[in-house]
Specification:
The protein is an alpha/beta fold. The chain has helices at 17-31, 45-57, 61-64, 72-86, 100-114, 136-154, 177-181, 187-190, 200-204, and strands spanning 6-11, 36-40, 90-93, 118-122, 158-163, 193-198, 212-220, 226-233, 238-241. The protein has a 9-stranded mixed sheet with strand order 3-2-4-5-1-6-7-8-9, with helices on both faces. A hairpin with a 4-residue loop joins strand 8 and strand 9. Helix 5 (100-114) runs parallel beside helix 6 (136-154). The longest helix is centred in the middle third of the chain and has 19 residues, at 136-154. The protein is globular. The two termini are 33 Å apart. The model has no long low-confidence stretch (mean pLDDT 89).
């Protein structure tokens, strides 16, 4: 990501948006050793941490949450994973219902004291506006404008998740910018990049596609657009590259 950018990632429910966001934040802090902040208004910091540990270790969430017995080897893997995450500068704030002003002040402190280099927000619909607005649509537009302002003011990329509308036609259809406009109006005005996520198997019920995740860059003010296939391991909250075995 580039400094000052606002990146919007949209998708329908259950496509793996939160998993992708956590994975990107983890890569930023752990793999590249760059401090990153996650504003997780959709899940607690404990749940977010468990998802990260599950992705790191391959241990199912059922074990991490105590529904199944942990083996000795599992505890060893968890210990290694915890040390890796604890040694990184990944900051998770699970305060619900933050306003843009709340986030701006927290980002200011994190940039000043922790040199945070990227901000991740889950998600736009979980935020609340700073003041009275005429409609939910107007509120989301204003919040999106404020997030772009945060990115430029503090010189960090801000990556925010958003829902998209249901397809207007029957059948398997990828989300479009038009679908995004229902939940994230004026995104093309404020966002530097817009990604849309799709899991075709959720609509088609095709077992051959149930793990397939499509990520499409539909808008990019700095260059080209494009499409990538990924694999979503829902059982371990892990997203990896897709390789064509044919």
């Amino acid at each position: 990501w580039n400094r000052g950018e606002l990146i919007v990632i949209g998708g329908r429910p259950c496509v793996g948006k939160s998993t992708l966001l956590l994975r990107m934040a983890r890569n930023c802090a752990v793999q590249f050793d760059l401090p990153a902040a996650v504003f997780s208004m959709q899940m607690s910091s404990v749940e977010a941490s468990n998802r990260l540990i599950s992705a790191e270790t391959g241990i199912p969430m059922e074990k991490l949450e105590g529904f199944e017995r942990m083996e000795k080897e599992d505890w060893i893997h968890v210990d290694v994973s915890l040390k890796k995450l604890a040694g990184s500068q990944l900051f998770i704030d699970d305060t619900p219902g933050l306003t843009p002003s709340d986030i701006s002040e927290r980002v200011r402190q994190l940039v000043k004291r922790r040199q945070v280099r990227a901000v991740f927000i889950d998600n736009l619909q979980a935020m609340i506006p700073d003041g009275k607005v005429d409609s939910p649509r107007a509120a989301r537009s204003e919040m999106l404008r404020s997030l772009k302002e945060i990115a430029t003011t503090f010189g960090v990329p801000v990556i925010v998740l958003t829902n998209v509308g249901r397809p207007k036609k029957a059948g398997r259809i990828r989300p479009t910018v038009t679908d995004l406009d229902e939940y994230c109006p004026l995104s093309t005005d404020y966002a530097d990049r817009i990604f849309l996520m799709d899991r075709p198997g959720l609509l088609s019920h095709d077992r051959n596609e149930e793990d397939l995740l499509g990520l499409e860059l539909v808008r990019n003010k700095r260059g080209r657009t494009g499409f990538a296939n990924l694999v979503f391991d829902e059982g371990h909250f892990r997203i990896t590259e897709w390789f064509d075995k044919t």
